[in-house]
Amino acid sequence: MDPTLPRGTDNTVERMLRALGGWLFPPREGGGGGAHGVLPPLLIGLTFVSGLVDAVSFIGLDQVFVANMTGNVVLLGFALAGDREFSAAASLLALAAFTAGAAAAGRIRRDHPAGRLFGPLVAAQAVLVAGALAVSAAGAGRLPAVGLLAVSMGMQNAVVHRLAVPDLTTTVVTRTLTGLAADRRGPAAVRRLVSVAALFCGALAGAVLTLHHGPGAALALTAGLLGWIAATGRAAARPAGGPVTGRGGG
Fold first, then answer.
1. Cα(1)–Cα(10) distance, rounded to whole angstroms?
2. Rounded-to-integer distance, Cα 145 and Cα 53, Å
3. pTM for the whole thing?
4. In the prediction, which pLDDT does 66 show?
5. Taking each helix axis from N to C terminus, what angle separates 39-55 and 187-213, rounded to the nearest 10 degrees?
6. Gap between the Cα atoms of 8 and 23, Å rounded
7. Measured distance CA(98)–CA(66) in Å, rounded
8. What is the 8-class DSSP label of residue 170?
9. Rounded CA gap, 179 and 147, in Å?
10. Could you please report the per-residue DSSP string of 5-63?
11. Whose CA is closest to 53, among 126, 114, 119, 162?
12. How far apart are CA 179 and CA 185, in angstroms?
């Protein structure tokens, strides 16, 4: 077993993740198969999570986004214009909490390689999502859950921003779709298409679970996925082919 992987990581899972990474980043782009190691498929997993939590927050909580901050700015404008379907307080809370989470993760990451922080920060996300599940189940109101989820997504975006793996931002779809439509076909187009599909599938799964089983079911799935990604994410610290690429990742 690769010594960079956590003890107990299944060889079959490892091979599958590295194969997916190599498919998303073929040798001619990175100078070696799977230049980013297991990181690309894990980021696809986080993209799926983004769709899940936005479905929960919009459908099951307070018609607000916790991952898509562009949408929140627009919803805030609607609310301030007098549309009573949307809550200005919820949008402002999500924006503030997201920014706080990104700032907190940003302070930590400045002095550490981003790859080594990937697993711990995703683990912290899992704890925050579990906290949102707990406060929601306890009937503590919707806004505390919105705040916890938005903090977790801010942290996710901060570490993904630092890693700067091409085309895998985990939340931003507008630029991804623009590149998919405007640029030449190639490996980048495959990554963009997979990223959009992962966000869509996450939103679909989150909506189905929330509508038929309540927000708790979708949040439980989200926490479980994040826990698995965090446990596997130790491998992202030293992927095959060298250190994780990304700004300041030395």
1. 8
2. 11
3. 0.85
4. 94
5. 40
6. 25
7. 7
8. S
9. 32
10. SPTT--HHHHHHHHHHHHHHS-HHHHSSTTTTTTHHHHHHHHHHHHHHHHHIIIIIIIS
11. 126
12. 10
Between CA 88 and CA 63, with CA 144 as vertex, the angle to 5 degrees is 40
SS3 210: helix
Comparing CA positions, the residue from 115, 155, 151 lying closest to residue 132 is: 151
pLDDT at residue 109 in the model: 57
Alpha helices in 81-113 (DSSP H): 88-109
pLDDT score, position 112 = 64
CA dist., res. 226 & res. 57, Å (int): 17
- Going from the first residue of the chain to its last (250 residues), give the mean pLDDT of each consecutive group of 10, the final group possibly shorter: 42 80 74 68 95 95 92 93 92 96 82 74 94 90 93 93 87 83 85 93 96 95 95 62 40
The pLDDT, as a whole number, for residue 5 is 40
| Domain ranges for the chain | 11-237
Q: Please tell me the total number of residues recorded for the chain in this structure.
A: 250
Give the CA radius of gyration of the chain: 18
